[in-house]
Structures are given as structure tokens and as C-alpha cells.
Amino acid sequence: MSAYGTATPSGSTGASTVTRAEYCVVACAEAWRNAGEVLASPMGTVPTIGARLARLTFSPELLLTDGEALLMADVPAVGQRPDAVEGWLPFRQHLALTATGRRHVMMGASQIDRHGNQNISCIGPWERPTRQLLGVRGAPVNTLNNPTSYWVPRHSSRVFVDRVDMVSGVGHDRAAEAGPSAMRYHRIPEVISNLGVFDFETPDRTMRLRSLHPGVSVQQVTEATGFALVVPEEVPYTRQPTDVELRLIREVVDPKGLREREVPA
Amino acid sequence: MTQDRDQDRGQDRSTKIMTAEEVAGRIESGMTVGIGGWGSRRKPMALVRALLRSDVTDLTVVSYGGPDVGLLAAAGKIRKLVAAFATLDSVPLEPHFTAARQRGDFEFVELDEAMFMWGLTAGAHRLPFMPVRAGLGSDVLRVNPSLRTVTSPYEDGEELVAAKALRLDAALVHLNRADPYGNGQYLGPDPYFDDLFCEAAEQAYVSCEQVVETADLLKEHGPQTLLVKRLFVHGVVETPHGAHFTSCAPDHDRDEAFQRAYVAAARDPEAWPAFRERFLSGDEAAYQAAVAAFHQEQSAKKGDAA
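^ inputs. structure came back:
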């Protein structure tokens, strides 16, 4: 399982050919840099590709599941079964693992606010929603126990809202209100969207634009965000994938190009 | 020697074999019923279908929800749902569940996945609650005003959520194999929480792909596959494809084509009555026959297209 397919001659994949989806993959992978020997739990296609890329490159100690109960010893393409398995993680152990903190999850968000409160439960009044979604799932346990980042494939003011309808994943303000037990292991490292990367490295722990994906303007981001985003004087661009990373994304982890369906060019 | 021992062991014990109808007959209106599996994975669907055919109603359903929740909700059987989600896995939203919530059809106790697990554990251990960090700061506490926190009696003094025990009148689970006495065996990658559901229940019913002799349980599999112990089990039902259309690895995968047809019908109030009539108006044998006919139709269509 060490063959990475046919090697592309280096230099043939210039920055101009890097798609938005590929910038997103690299941005997601970066969330697991220096994560240590923990379980990476990506939800969504691009985070899954990103976690596998991180494991194949700068975070080889990460643990990855097959989406069911097995920990993969190798890194197959998305949708493929591993050739080798290194461990067993059924749902009951996965839920218990959150409490150990040895996990960094990247969840989706139907709504997220400036404090990092996330909603995947329902839209409208909880008592009788206008749109019932998944339910809170494991967002409450995740956010209070292990680092929780978010992935939003379509950045819009319907997702980045002033106030979420049902706090599923706990944000900084709500964790502080709930007290020391809630804050003890609470950490929201990053929010990644199809437009950029965001964090909470501000004095009041509200959302800040950390980097723009190349081709995106600050105005585009602020217009698609339903709250006042902290925008530093200078905003860097999300880093480019290296040639090796591009080859891994295109030929090894996602040869079918599923990333382009989640984030169309 | 082995034979003698088997005879000694089995002699005075009656089997717990029953039909899905008999299981449904044990469920009374108003009961709290836990349903095993997870999402669209190894759900005791034949037992759920038997409940659909019965006149039982006003159920409190406790489930890591999938089409079990959807079908019972669509049939108006649920008075209260205790769940962290309802999903079909490969299709994220369970259409009957979302529609029922949007109509306000039942009371909803929306819990976090881990709170649910520890609540079920408390139920099995006959404890009033288990302390968990999950829930603090989230709206799970807002929408469940009866949930309380508890303060650690030790020097840390931490304030945690007291995940309330989930105690069940009855549990329904589907496993790969069982013996006639209620020893249940799973052969797939994940036990889900089926043993816990059985332990938290006054009565537990195990349906399975195949009933085998006790001595055959470990012929090809390790002892850790024996998930459910007979001392918690009140009935065993042999229902091949009883988890259909959810997955029951390694016996069968999820029936994705059928699940897609279910979703299409469930999303369309005009189409649902025809689907219900075709698949859910008869007994389990009629259901399985209708599914077989559905697949014949599908492959005929494919043949035409090619």
C-alpha cells in the first residue's frame, strides 16, 4: 500500500490549476497539524480527504476510522476499504473516547454564530421547527470534551448567523456562562469554509478571518456572513498545496474527484 | 461427554422462541420501548413492522433513531421520542421523522449521543443518573428543563450534568444469531448498544437472522461475539432479513435501492399511501415477497435501459 500511483512530474501542477476544493482540503488538513497521537474524526468529504492527507504527510501519528468501527492501518482512497486494520472503535467506544479528549473532530454546521455556537438540530422554534434537521447528535459531548472544528462547504449568511436556533455545539460565550466545568476542555480551533479559514484568536473569543482562499475577497466573505466578523488589517491567503500534496489528493486519496462535488469550482 | 453436558444444561429450560406477532402482543400502549441498532444499521425492523400491524399506540420510543423511528412516527404510534438524532446514514435526514417534528406530532426528549449512552447505562445499573460533562452550555438543557446538574462531592467541586436514567419497559434488538434461550450473537463490526438496551429493560426481545443450537454459536466465531445474555431476554424470533432495509453485516448490507425508494415515498405525502399499501399492508412474509418483487422490477428496468 505504499504505491501512490503514477507520479506526476514535479512542477506540472502549478498554483493556477489548484482548485478551490483543493485549497479547502489543505486548510482542513492543517487543522490536524501537531494534533498529536489522537483520533481525527472528519465529517464531510473535504474534511475526510484533509484528514487522510494530514496522516500521509505532516501528521503520520493520527488515527483514522473507516467511517464504521475500524481504525485503518493504511490510508485508502475515500470510499475504499482499508487493506489493513489497526484497531476497533465501535460507537460505544467512540463516544467514550470523546471524554478522554484524545480526539479532534471536524463537524458540519447548519448554523454557526460569532461565538462558535453551532446548530445541526433544527431551524426555527425547537418546539415545532420549520425545518427539522439531524438533531444535536454528539455536538454537546464533542465541544465540551475534545477539540471541535467546523467545516462549511457553502459559506452564506444563512449558515453564519447572528444567533443559532438550537445550540448543539457549544460556543465560547455559552461555555463561559455555564462555568468552569464547561470551559475546562472546551476548544474550537477552527472554522473552515469554501471561502476561508476562521478562528477565535480575539480578546473576546469572537470569530476572526484568519485566511482567505486565493480568489476570494474580504468583501465576499463579509457579505456572506450574517454577523460582524473580526477582519485583521492584513489577511493572508490560505497556503498552497505542495506538489506532493496535490499528487496525494488527486491520485491517492480522492482519485474520483469527490471534493469537486462538495466544493464546485 | 459433551452430549451429556448439553443435555444436563438444556433439560429443564424451555425455549423462548416466539413470533414477531407474539412480541408485538407483549407491547402495551403507553409503554417505553427501546430499539437497538444505530441509524439505518441493524434495526429490528421485522419487530417494528409487527408493531405497525398491531393496535399499540402512545409509545415512548428510545432509539439511536433510523427508519424505526420514521415508520412508527408515520403510523402515529409515538407519543414521545427520546433520541439524539434520526438518520438513514447514506441519506442524512429521516423524512418521516422530520415531517412528524415539523407537524409537532410527538413530544421530543432531545439528548446528546453520549448522554443517551450514559442514561441507558444508568438504567441498566439501576442508578438514577450518571454524571457527564456533555450538555453543559448547550440547548439540550434548555429544551429538557427537567434535566439537573450535580456537584462533585470531591475537592474538584465540578458541576456536571446528571444524565437521567433511561429505563425501558421493553427492548427490541436484531442480531445475526441467537440460540433458542436468548443468547444473542453479533457478527458485524459494531455491537451498537443492543446489550445495554436489553439490560435496561424489564423485557427484552431478540430477533435474529438465524436461530442456531447453543453448541453451534462458537463453531466459527470467538466468545466476544456473544453480546446478549439470556438472563435479560424474554423472547427470540427468527426473522431472516428482519433488519431490512437497514444493514445487518455480514449477513446483508443496507438495501440502498430500497432505502432510496422509501425516502422518495416518505418525502411525498401523495406517494406514501401506495408504498405503504404495497409493502406494509401484509405480514412479514408478504413484506419480504414484495421486496423481492421490487428488486426483480429494478433489475428488469436496468435490463431495459441496457
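Chain A touches chain B through 48 residues (CB under 8 Å). The domain at 15-252 of chain A is CATH 3.40.1080.10 (Glutaconate Coenzyme A-transferase).
thumbs up if we can close this ticket
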